[in-house]
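My current task is to audit a protein record that another person submitted. What it holds is a sequence and that sequence's fold in token form. Thanks in advance; the entry in question is below.
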Amino acid sequence: MIRPSRRQLIIAGLGLGASATLAACSGDVPVTSRPTAPFGLPEPVPPSPGQSVVSARLTARPVTLDLGGRTVQTWAYGDSAPGATLRATAGDLLRVTLDNQLPADTTVHWHGVRLRPQADGVPGLTQDPVRVGKSFLYEFTVPDPGTYFFHPHVGTQLDRGLYAPLIIDDPAEPGDYDLEWVLVLDDWVDGTGTTPEEVLEQLVADGASGTDGTDHGTMAGMDHGSMSAGRSDTPWGTDTGDVDYPYYLINGRPPTDPPVLQGRAGQRVRLRVISAASDTIFTVALGGHRMTLTHTDGWPVRPVQTDAFYIGMGERYDATVTLGSGVFPLVARPQGGRTGGQGLAVVRTATGTLPPADVTPEELDGKVLTGSQLQPDDAGRLPNRGTDVTAALRLGGSMAPYVWTINGAPYGQNEALRVAPGQRLRLDATNMTMMPHPLHLHGHTFALPNGLRKDTLLMAPMESVALDLDADNPGDWMIHCHNIYHAEAGMMIDLRYT
């Protein structure tokens, strides 16, 4: 079990020879590799009669980005991070070609989509990795409307600029709003003196040496902050992540150069908020406004008003808001005492000056909603039936060594969960650590005890919850923590159909 107090690795100015460090302690490298299997190319998917086909091409390549005057080298889809929004309607067939122009193998995972396993993008489990200079065609039907996104499922590539929104429209939705804004939140480190791969290597090296980030000997250019396990006013505790990022972005822009969202007073806006963050929980608030949450992870909920809401890595929330007159800050405040500032966008409906980068809307001190408190819309509930099989899902881990586990062992050493087609599976999930973890399920959704449907659940420290899923999508699937560093350090497990 993780100790109740640790230190964070603060990344600003990090310059390190972590490969050499890892070589000296290779016995503690996380076991997250999967055996490469010759999957070959998946069978083509012909459209059904009358089915619309949406085609797109993704080029994953190295790019240079401007973060408010600071130039960084990273990887992205196309020329920007986030990449261009991909849009379709529920029931459409998507045909997306990935062109890998990166200097490394990659894949695309369609986060939250209940799709066929051959398109899920997990190398060694559902497909061969897409090699450098090669292409791969993803074909799948999108069955459910909602707010989704896509990203790689290889190493720590998510913590670069490789992500983009996927919006699936509902043909039956009335669309009773005037504007729609898609907001992608991110924590950013790549190109600021280190890479995500080096961050993971340093976390592992610190854990292997037993320093827990407090004593780095000759590792120059590093700054380290401390976190205590004292009282917290949030359900997530004071220890919410391992990396204190130098930047927090909204739609690829830092708070010193925020995106400006234009509207008119009185207009009703639909917000689609996506967390592409790798290690950060955000609190989201719009100054001068209350938001009405309407969906989580694509599924409708009973609308509820709130001043702000928490969003974990991989989660998505939809909300509506009626705009006032003026200039308002939309803030994504990192939880856990991070020192790198916050994410900021600006809503403008009238003349006025931009808010400062460190603005604190009073809504952050108001009612802050946790996603699991939402009540499902009746149309989004699972069918009422009994449980056929139950499995334990215990999240564990430590900082020294830096290893995170499910059911007592890291990925590659833990035993896959099993389910038969047609069964109702209950996952008795328990977070046995003093950190929150966003638990993500591939290819399915699960239902909380109150019936709420999600594919990514932010679990509080020491929280237990029963999650029900219907085994209606045969294949081999992943369940893992969507903190990318915890996943790569072992907090993953397979769900296999028998």
Remarks:
- The chain has three helices and 34 strands.
- The first helix runs from residue 18 to 24.
- The CA atoms of residues 436 and 460 lie 5 Å apart.
